[in-house]
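Can't attach files on this board, so I'm pasting raw text. These are the components:
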Amino acid sequence: MKRRTVLVTSLVVLAVVVAFSVFLGTRQPVTDATDITSPLLGQPAPNFSGTELDGAHWSLRNDLGHVVVVNFWASWCGPCVVEAPNLSTFAWQERHANVDVIGVVFNDTLSAAQGFAAHYGSLYPSILDPGGAIANRYGVVSPPTTFVINAKGRVVVTLVGPVRLSQLNAVLGRVRQ
Amino acid sequence: MTLTWLGRSFLYVAFAGALGGVAFQLRALRTKRPSFAIPFAVLALLGIAGAVGVMQYALITHDFALAYVAENNATFTPLLYSITGMWSALEGSLLLWSLLLAAITLGVLFYYRREKTDAVVGWAAVVLFGVGAFFSALMMFPADPFLHNPAHVLQGQGPNALLQDNPLVAAHPPLLYLGFVGFTVPFAFAIAMLITGRVHERWPLEQRRWTVLAWGALSVGIILGAWWSYQVLGWGGFWGWDPVENAALLPWLTATAYIHSVIVQDRRGLFRVWNLSLAISTFALTVLGTFFTRSGVLESVHSFSSSTLGPLLIGLFFFTVALGVGLLAWRGDALRSAVGVDQPFSREGLFVANNILFVGFAVVVLLGTVFPLLYEAVNGTQVTVGTPYFATIAAPLSVALLALMALAPLVSWRSASREVLWNRIRLVAWASLAVVALLATLGVRHLAVLVAVFFAAAAAGSALRTLWGVLVAARRRGRLLGALRAPTTGGMVVHLGIVVLAIGIVVSTSYTQRSEVTLASGQSTVVDSQFVTFKGFHVVKDPLETATQLAVEVDGHSLFPAVTTFNGRATTVGTPAIDSNLLRDVYVTFDAVGGNGTTSGAQVQNNLPAGSVVLGVTVEPLLAWLWIGGLMVGLGAGVSFLRRRHVEEPT
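---
Top answer:
C-alpha cells for the assembled complex are below.
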C-alpha cells in the first residue's frame, strides 16, 4: 500500500492541474472596469467627509450640484496604478465643468498613500478613510471601485476595476443627459 | 520586404535545427547511432542569432518596414534604447528568449560532449530541443516579429515611456529571461532521469550547477527589477506584489527549495521523487509566469503587451506538468529511497523544514496571484489582492527562514548531539544577542526589527563560521585558493548576501521618513536632518523628451527631480531623483507647483505662491544595502556555479 503513494499523489495533482489549466485557458483578457448593479444605484449617495492627504478637510456636501466621481484606491493595488493617470487626465479635462474627482484611500498606510498620490493621482485630492467607514457605507470590498454621483446627489454608476478615460467620458455623457 | 523575408528565413533555420535535433536525437537513442546533437544545436543557435541580427539591424537603423520596429522604435530613439527595444514587446522578447535557450542548449551539450552516448544526456537534449522548437514555432506563426509594415512611417512611436527611462532595461529583462530559460535545463534532466529511471547517480547534483546559474541570474534580475521600480515609480517602493513580480518570484521560490533539497539527495540519497517534482514545478512555473505576463488575464504594471498566446502558453504549462506527473506516476514508487529522515533535528530534517517553508511560500503567492481570477469567475466582479495579504504571510515566513539559515549550517547530518551543536552555535548566539542589546540601548524599540536583526546576525554568524572552516581546511591542504571552489563557499556567500538584503529591507521599510516641504526658489530647509535647498526650474528639451526639472541640493549633492513627457507617446511620468549613500537614501519627488501651473504637468495648487514648489522628501535608511545584498547573492551563485566538478563515487 505504502509504495503506491507517488502514483496516487500524481493522479490527484494531475486532476488539479487539468482543472487549473482549463480554467486559466478560458479566461478573457481584462479590459475595462465592469459596470455592476450595486444596491446603491439610483439611491442618494451616502454622505462622507474626511481629511485629505495634505491635511485639508473635504466633504461631499460641499460638492452639491456637481457631478462627483468617487474612486476608492490603495497604493498596493496594481489596477489602481493603471487607472490613476486616467482619473488624473479626466479630472484635469473636466476641472471647469462642475465635475469633481475625489479619491478615497482604502486600507493603506498614510506614507505609502501620500507617495502614491504624489506620483500618480496628482491632479485630484484624496481623503483618508480610517477604519474603512466610508468603504463600508459604499459596500466597497476591493479597490479600485469607482462611483459616479450625479448633480442631484444620486449614485448613477458603480464601476469595479480599472477605469479608462473613454469609459469615464461615456458615463459623464450619460449623466448629463 | 527584404528584412521580413531574411528574418523569417533565419527563424526557419532555427526551427529546423531544433526539430532536427529532436528527430536525430530520438533516432540515436533508439539505434545507438551518433546523434549529431551539437551540430543541430549550432544550427539552431545560428538561426536565432541571425534573426536577432536582422532585428537589431532594423532597430538600430530605424527601419520601419518591420511593424515591430515602427511600434517600438522612433527616429529619435537613442542607440541603447534601440537595442533594448528588442525586448520592449512580446515578439522581440521571444527572440531574446529563444536566443538564450539556444545558447544554453549548446552550452549544456558541449559541457557533456564526452557523455553524449549516455541516455540521460540524450533525453535531456530531446527536451531542450523540443522546448526550443516550441518557442521558434511561436515566432513563426502567432507572434511573428518580422511582420511587414506596409504603411509609410516617418517617425515611429518609440518604446513605452517606462522602457526608455532607465538604462536598467538593458540588464533586468535579459537576466530575468536567463533565469527563466535556465530552468529548462534541470527540467530536461529531470524528465531524462525519469524516462531512463536513473535518479540515483550523480545527475541530480550535476543539475544543481545549472539550476544555481539560472537561479543566480533570476535573483539578480529580480533585484535589478526592484531597483528599477524604486528609481522610476516614485513612491519609494521596490516591490508591489504585482502579478508579474509574483510570476518571477514563484519559480525562484521552488528553485531555492530545489537547490537545498538536492544537497540532501547527494549526501543521504533521500528526496529523489521530491527533487524531480521541484525541478519540474520550477520550469512549469516559469511557463505559467510567462502566461500571466503575456495573456493579459491579470491587470499589471508590466502589461506592456497582451497577446493571443495565452491558450498556447497554458497548453505548454499543461503539457509540462502532465508529462512530469505522468512520468512520476509511472516511475515514482520504484525510485523512492528505502530510508527516510531518522531524526527531525538533523541537517536533513532542517532541510525538510526549509522546503516546507519555500514551497508553502510559493503556494501562498500563487493563490494570491490567481485569486482575483477565481473570485471573478464565481462572483462576476473584480477584486484586488495586494500587499496587505502577501506581507502578513511573507514577513513571518522570512523570519523563520532567517532562523533556519542561522541553525542549519551548524547542525550535523543524521543526528545532532546537543553538546556539539551548542559548542558550534554558542559564539554566534551570544554575538547576535550582543548586537540586539546594543541596538536596544541605542534606542531601537521596534520589536519586529530586533527579532529580524537577531536572526539575521545569527545567520551571518553561522555562514561566516562555515566559511572559516572551509578556509582552515584549505590552508591545511596548502591550497588557499581551493577554498573558493569548495562546495559550500558559494552557498554561504549567498547566505551572507541574503542577510545583508534582509537587513536593508527591514530597516528601510521600518524607518522610512516621508515629508512634504514647500520651498520658493533659493529657499532651504532641514528635513529629517537632511539640508534641502531648492535652486530653481530648468526646462530640458531634446528630441526624446521634454522635462521640467527642479534643481535641488541635498547635503551638497545636486538632484534633479522632474516631470517628463516623452515625445511620440504623449505620456507623462514623474522622474524622482535619489541621493544614495551607504547610510541612507534621500528620495526627492516633484509633487506640486505653485501659481497657475504653466510650468509642468505636476499638481497645481493655487494657494501656493507662483514660483514655489512642493517637494516630496523621503529618507530611507540603509536602503542601498538591499542592492548590495542582491549583488552578493549573484556573486555567491557564480562561485557556486564554478565549484569543483562532482567526482563520481563508487556506489
